[in-house]
């Protein structure tokens, strides 16, 4: 507690503004527990950058924590690009303070002699990724907390390729940041270096999105879409992209169309949560729509709902939509003729069905750690190969490589192309998914997230991972665990042969168990939320589509048994 008090009192010097000092003094006098949470650690970069609750303190998002990160990044950029005019581009989403924090970040860059392109209004994360390369920038920043609750904000850093920072740049930048004190931040901007941008970049991004996501699908006039931006940034791009691609029957949920950091109509602006799409699904049932699309606040994730075999709207999980999008892109590539250098990509906690799909098409499937920065790194590391598309279970997908992050804008168009084409051919998105299960195996996934807030929650999550490592799971639903993959040590142990082999992937706090029947369980603390996540994947054989309901029920029962025996549901 002494260290926490010392850290807190250091924020009472004249360097900090009056409001910040008043906030700290209030906590010192009246709320020791809150003070602890704000100062027991510094915010760190996770899989999606730096993300946290807004407020004063080292463990909060504010002008000083973001200013320090920006100062460190500025120092690094100026060291690395000594002979260039260093340029960065900044975007921000609909969250509270995103616009003012983006302005502060721009000012710190400009105070360090760096040219800044600042979007004049909120824009999507995929447009920011696109803009880095389009404007020939050395780095990019987006102010967003993605799908987190309203009290959060965040800071994602992108590099020259348009992907988020990865080794070795990330470690070097973090070291630079950690070497600084808050008093090292330069806030006095050279405003001549800050240029507002909007329509020219918008036009280039929208054109690129239509070019990469449109495949001249049949049946567009007869395909009804309901779209919701969930009060986020995608309203600035998706309706226009769909319009230019030829979709005329698009109903926008107006009560969720206005950007609003309070997200007043949903419990969480996360399309992974069924409740978030409930208004759009009701509208779809009312008007007889074929598909519902909903995106998170910064428009990198998308939720897709389609009509199931009973004709009711059903939300697909991220693995299902990823499989369908990847297969469609592979079909398009195959029609042109494979060149033998194609690859698709996924993550270690996503469905193994991506491997089965790749094998079926004779292409490579590369597997990365969680986070699209690792998929973007693959594209950079293997320039001789052609990236077709790829995704992860958490409702993210990337179409080609013109954007180097999750892209709900182009993926929305791609999902509509798949649905319209299927309907025109007398099928449906859902029926085509079942056909995939027949062809490549019926894989079914389940995600369980446990929220553990604050310092005690972080300790609890840490202990849970230690317990799983020291007392490993021996079987799942009667099937013996045969492989344990420990990404902390980057090793895979075969429990049958005793052979330990290296995993050629960066280390991460993830444990994966694989059983004799192919059941897979992964345990992983979130890099951006106070959560520990458990990912389950099981599979079975589906001989014909008519057996779908029966096999689906069997797989659901298997997952229920596993959750019950592990006591984590």
Automatic annotation (TrEMBL):
Homology family: Belongs to the phosphohexose mutase family.
Classification lineage: Bacteria, Pseudomonadati, Bacteroidota, Flavobacteriia, Flavobacteriales
GO biological process: carbohydrate metabolic process; purine ribonucleoside salvage
One Gene Ontology MF term: magnesium ion binding
Keyword Magnesium: yes
Cofactor names: Mg(2+)
Organism domain of life: Bacteria
PANTHER family: PHOSPHOGLUCOMUTASE 2B-RELATED (PTHR45745:SF1), PHOSPHOMANNOMUTASE 45A (PTHR45745)
Record's keyword terms, sorted: Isomerase, Magnesium, Metal-binding, Phosphoprotein
Protein name as catalogued: Phosphoglucomutase
Domain Alpha-D-phosphohexomutase alpha/beta/alpha stretches: 44-180, 205-305, 317-436
Organism: Arenibacter nanhaiticus
